[in-house]
Amino acid sequence: MDRFVPPFYGRRRGWLIITQLLLVVAIACMSLQRPKEALFFVAINAVFIAFISASQDIVADAYRTDILEVYEMGAGVATFVLGYRIALLLTGSVALILADLMPFNLVYLCLAGLMLLTVSFTIFAPEPKFDNNSPQTLKDAVILPFQEFFQRSGVVSGILMLLFINLYRLGDSFLANMSTPFLLQTGFTQTDIGAIQGGMGLLATIVGTLVGGAVMSKIGINRALWIFGAIQAMSNLSYLVLSQVGQNYPIMVLTINIENFCGGLATASFIAFLMSLCNHQFSATQYALLSSLYAVGRDILVAPAGKIVENIGWSWFFVFTIILALPGLLLLPWFAPWNPPLVDIPRPGLDNDID
After folding, report:
1. Where are the beta strands (DSSP E) in the chain?
2. How many whole angstroms separate alpha carbon 171 and alpha carbon 324?
3. How many CB atoms lie within 10 A of CB 161?
4. Which of 266, 282, 294 is nearest to 78 (CA)?
5. Does the N-terminal or the C-terminal CB of the chain have fewer CB atoms within 10 Å?
6. Where does 138-335 sit in CATH, by number?
7. For residue 292, what are the CA distances in angstroms to 122, 165, 285, 289?
């Protein structure tokens, strides 16, 4: 996606339209599947959807990175996450409700139609402006993004930067991995958890992301990383309180909302930070690699969480998640100093001469 430019709609929108049209076809094909008769073909169809969906994510992330100016990142990230969360709600809860009212094959056709609608938005979206220094070979498209990143950062600093990306939200990742088992063991039902996390919790995440984006536009990415990272770490105390009081429904509601709101704040600043690390020449490759590296901490390093709970109990586990947040916060002075060097940034409406 960094190397080749489609013959229509440009480097980013062209790939977006290709992946979106492929998803329309793939999702519509799910309506033709018969799981009881040929589960293998359902699996193949699902894997294809996952692959094309991941490809769309890569080019969408690159588009967002390329199109947004630094002063727009707060609002841009917030809007992007808002759309993502609404999509989760529509394709999750609403799709399941529709499945109670009509056959599943019709639900898939509705989802394919919804996917087709996104193509029109892509057509009318602005295309990022590029110079002519895009990678000229596939080898360059794979190797140059690594070389450019480490040349710009320095090898040692670059490695530490990658470590920082893994550590910054590690405490939050441990908590998120074990929050549902904790709530179930505390005595709350799956309906209780699903209703609060999928309803109020989702809304709290959206509000947190929007607030985080607005605040970040005022204070900058670096300071947002400091403030929101600290708030995210301290929000884990709400689970510590719940572990002490036990099955208390109002406290559970408050706990989930606090954790999701603060998670939204941290998400806004962290995504903007990853975007700021990308060179527009290789934004698809570099953002995909950086976000995948973060996923290592979120999905793999948290594997021992259950065993840790067995050994130290829930209360100390939540204290442990706060401690896990400290290494990432302690690296902030090197990778996101509180007072970064000043950079002249054009402001729409402020740099124009007034007659």
Report:
1. none
2. 5
3. 19
4. 266
5. C
6. 1.20.1250.20
7. 25, 10, 11, 5
> Which sequence spans correspond to the domains of the chain?
11-123, 138-335
Length of the chain: 355
**Would you say 240 and 179 are in contact if contact means Cβ atoms under 8 Å apart?**
no
Contact 267, 81 (CB under 8 A): yes
354/338 Cα distance (integer angstroms): 34
Task: Read off the tokens for 349.
Answer: 């409406």
Q: Rg for the chain (alpha carbons), in Å?
A: 22
CB atoms inside a 10 Å sphere around CB 96: 10
Residue type at position 277: L
Q: Which of 54, 65, 75, 72 minimizes the C-alpha distance to 12?
A: 65
pLDDT of residue 133: 62
* Tens of pLDDT, residues 287-310: 888 888 888 777 788 888 989 999
- The dihedral region occupied by 317, where left means phi > 0, alpha psi between -120 and 50, and beta the remainder, is alpha
Nearest-angstrom CA–CA distance, 81 and 211: 12
Can you say whether residue 313 is alpha, beta or left, with left for phi > 0 and alpha for psi between -120 and 50 degrees?
left
238 Cβ contact partners less than 8 Å away, ≥ 6 residues apart: 254, 255, 258, 259
Q: How far apart are CA 301 and CA 226, in angstroms?
A: 23
What's the CA dihedral at 228, 155, 275, 331 to 10 degrees? 0
Q: Which two tokens stand for residue 124?
A: 């009318």
Q: Determine what percent of the chain is predicted with pLDDT higher than 70.
A: 94
- For 108-167, the pLDDT digits (tens) are 899 999 999 989 899 999 888 876 566 777 777 778 888 888 888 888 888 888 889 888
Q: Using an 8 Å Cβ cutoff, are 202 and 85 in contact?
A: yes
Give the torsion sign (CA, 108, 113, 114, 118). positive
Given a cut of 60, is residue 350 above it in pLDDT? no
Beta carbons of 52 and 26 less than 8 angstroms apart: yes
Whether the pLDDT of residue 207 is over 70: the answer is yes
15 alpha carbon, distance to own chain's centre? 20
